């Protein structure tokens, strides 16, 4: 059985390509993030993710005006067979990733079948990162470029603190995001008499972190450095990106240091100056010195208290924002990628079957009509992956293209027979997938 992970990476918008290629406490209400006028348009490309459950999409299309009861039943059967065929492909993906991750899973409770050499482990890690990246691409995640990470790291946290990440502890670190939107958080401010106020801030609706820590130098052994960690989060503010990484520390800003040091130094300087006079040490002088030192100590402990509150808020926040970890995160991401494949295939076939008619459509026409439908249904401005959808349906042999690039779908009854034969062939010979 062929693995969907062996498909080539998508290298551009589907509408710009030729023949289709088959390729392997935050508010829940979002709106798309507005691109900054200072940022290039490429910073926020249109999302390719279709935010519908497959079952909901099938129900919506089954209610399409003009469908008879027989056509609705046949279409639902079509969706079931399509789901089964796609699921078989992703079963191979799951097995490949399980095998690639087995040697690096920090939560594994099984014993390894054989000890691998350092060279074999290095090759296995490379395979794991590569296949994991392909999986996330199929799930419509985008790998964060270094400049995006740097921009997030230079922004002050929503909680008013600067955070510092020690990147020297990582052997390899990759971050993937999906859903560039604006979310809402609530906070209290003195200027607002401690009333809760809503604050809009840019977020990643889904964020994936995969990392390996750098092994220690010398003979010392570190079990954590042998593992590869995978974390899946939701609703992460961009300015708080570093809070997800190990080795992050709260960094004292220049203002925080000045607030602690300047009153103390000024008080001590005045005290030293007064000591030069013959009047000697007075109670006023001692009070000035003690008050300056006390203010400095109070400012320092106030900073520590703010840091402790941040750590508490961070722990409480991540408790609800951490969706899954390690092998569990991989299984969940495989399921999401499989769902996305099904949505694309179902939409492409339905529109060719019901809307294109006997004349058929080009890939560009199909892409335009599906994207218009998604906008009309308030899904958003989705960049539908028409090339992937057409390639999948063509592989199932239920659509075909003319030499002029016009695509036509088989009638629903003929498509069902074709899929049924393919399913029987798959059961008899799994390698035919």
Tell me the total number of β-strands: 11
Q: Percent helix among the residues?
A: 40-55%
- Uncertain segments are 1-32, 34-43
Shape: globular
State the end-to-end CA separation: 5 Å
* Average of per-residue pLDDT values: 78
The value of Rg in angstroms is 29 Å
Percentage of residues in strands: 15-25%
Helix count from the secondary structure assignment? 11
| Biggest beta-sheet profile | 6 strands, antiparallel
Order of helices and strands: EHHHEHEEEHEEHHEHEHHEEH
Backbone structural class: alpha+beta
Describe the structure.
Helices cover 48% and strands 16% of the residues. Strands 1, 2, 4, 5, 6 and 8 form a 6-stranded antiparallel sheet that branches. A 3-stranded antiparallel sheet has the order 9-11-10. It has a two-stranded antiparallel sheet with strand order 3-7. The protein is of the alpha+beta class and 433 residues long. Among the domains are: 4-22 and 48-117 and 326-432, no CATH class; 255-305. The model is unreliable at 1-32 and 34-43 (pLDDT under 50).
């Amino acid at each position: 059985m062929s693995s969907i992970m062996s498909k080539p990476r998508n290298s551009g918008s589907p509408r710009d390509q030729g023949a289709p290629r088959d390729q392997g406490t935050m508010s829940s209400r979002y709106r798309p993030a507005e691109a900054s006028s200072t940022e290039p348009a490429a910073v926020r490309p249109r999302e390719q993710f279709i935010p519908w459950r497959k079952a909901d999409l099938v129900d919506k299309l089954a209610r399409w005006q003009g469908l008879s009861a027989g056509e609705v039943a046949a279409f639902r059967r079509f969706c079931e067979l399509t789901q089964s065929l796609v699921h078989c492909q992703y079963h191979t993906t799951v097995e490949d990733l399980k095998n690639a991750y087995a040697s690096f899973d920090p939560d594994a409770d099984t014993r390894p079948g054989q000890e691998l050499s350092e060279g074999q482990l290095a090759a296995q890690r490379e395979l794991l990162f590569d296949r994991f990246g392909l999986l996330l691409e199929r799930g419509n995640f985008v790998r964060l470029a270094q400049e995006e990470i740097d921009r997030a790291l230079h922004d002050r946290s929503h909680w008013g603190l600067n955070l510092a990440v020690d990147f020297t502890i990582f052997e390899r670190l990759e971050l993937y995001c999906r859903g560039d939107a604006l979310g809402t958080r609530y906070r209290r401010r003195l200027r607002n008499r401690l009333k809760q106020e809503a604050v809009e801030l840019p977020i990643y609706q889904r964020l994936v972190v995969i990392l390996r820590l750098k092994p220690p130098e010398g003979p010392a052994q570190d079990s954590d450095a042998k593992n590869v960690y995978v974390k899946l989060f939701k609703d992460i503010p961009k300015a708080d990106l570093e809070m997800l990484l190990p080795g992050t520390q709260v960094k004292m800003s220049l203002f925080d240091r000045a607030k602690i040091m300047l009153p103390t130094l000024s008080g001590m300087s005045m005290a030293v100056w007064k000591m030069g006079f013959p009047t000697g040490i007075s109670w006023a002088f001692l009070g000035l010195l003690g008050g300056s030192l006390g203010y400095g100590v109070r400012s320092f402990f106030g900073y520590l208290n703010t840091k402790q509150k941040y750590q508490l808020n961070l722990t409480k926040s991540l408790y609800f924002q951490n969706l899954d970890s390690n092998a569990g995160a991989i299984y969940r991401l495989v399921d999401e990628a499989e769902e996305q494949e099904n949505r694309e295939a179902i939409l492409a076939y339905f529109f060719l079957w019901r809307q294109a008619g006997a004349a058929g459509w080009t890939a560009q026409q199909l892409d335009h009509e599906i994207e218009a439908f998604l906008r009309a249904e308030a899904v958003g401005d989705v960049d539908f992956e028409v090339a992937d959808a057409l390639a999948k349906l063509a592989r199932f042999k239920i659509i075909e293209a003319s030499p002029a690039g016009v695509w036509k779908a088989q009638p629903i009854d003929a498509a069902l027979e074709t899929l049924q034969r393919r399913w029987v062939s798959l059961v008899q010979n799994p390698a035919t997938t």
